């Protein structure tokens, strides 16, 4: 949240923060400081990165924890389970740290874990731009009525270049970046069976897994009870 607009689309007020979320200034459209506590800019609770701001304490509420921008730390610890999930990340051992001490390149939407912004952008690109490929392959499988014969036809045959060509044309219409086009086309030829059976939600999870990496754990099926099963976690 860096500005408020009125109903006519004109700027009403602006917010300026430092990298950690400390409020530097609240100004009107002309750049004059807004000091009136009843002004909408000061009453508005949605501030830095969309967090709820408590004017009395100067803390941000991230749905699970309160964050102090002056300290660059949460005022209470994260869940102990993150120590197991992030054993390779030494910064994760500090359960009070915000964005891994790097708020410029990371974001923390809920107080649970940090996310590298570029990774999220790439994951969204992957999910959105792979949809035409998903639709193309699914249509072919429906026409061929059977997945296994379809895979034999797709694997190392003229169908792969054909699908790639169709998909490239579709992707170019939405301004797909060349580097992502290459990865998608490679993905089509090597992972046709995987994508053909995916919902959009699964596709997003699959893309995140490819980017962040995954790790399998043995857990109880129903939380604290039930049979032991293998589950796969995306390592944010």
Automatic annotation (TrEMBL):
Gene3D superfamilies: RHS repeat-associated core (2.180.10.10). InterPro entries: Rhs_assc_core, RHS_repeat, T6SS_VgrG/RHS, YD. NCBIfam families: Rhs_assc_core, YD_repeat_2x. This is Uncharacterized protein.
């Amino acid at each position: 949240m860096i500005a408020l607009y009125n109903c006519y689309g004109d700027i009403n007020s602006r917010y300026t923060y430092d990298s950690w979320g400390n409020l530097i200034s609240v100004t009107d459209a002309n750049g004059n400081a807004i000091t009136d506590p009843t002004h909408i800019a000061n009453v508005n609770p949605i501030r830095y990165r969309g967090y709820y701001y408590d004017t009395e304490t100067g803390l941000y509420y991230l749905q699970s924890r309160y964050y102090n921008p002056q300290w660059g730390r949460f005022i209470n610890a994260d869940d102990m389970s993150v120590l197991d999930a992030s054993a390779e990340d030494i910064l994760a051992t500090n359960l009070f740290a915000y964005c891994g001490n790097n708020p410029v390149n990371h974001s923390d939407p809920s107080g649970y874990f940090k996310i590298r912004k570029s990774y999220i952008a790439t994951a969204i690109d992957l999910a959105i731009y792979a949809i035409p490929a998903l639709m193309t392959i699914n249509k072919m499988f429906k026409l061929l009525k059977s997945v296994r014969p379809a895979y034999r036809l797709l694997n190392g045959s003229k169908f792969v270049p054909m699908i790639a060509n169709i998909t490239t044309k579709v992707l170019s219409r939405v301004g797909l970046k060349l580097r992502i086009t290459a990865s998608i086309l490679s993905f089509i030829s090597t992972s046709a069976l995987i994508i053909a059976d995916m919902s959009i939600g699964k596709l997003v999870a699959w893309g995140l897994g490819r980017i962040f990496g995954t790790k399998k754990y043995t857990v109880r099926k129903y939380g604290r009870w039930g049979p032991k099963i293998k589950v796969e976690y995306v390592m944010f």
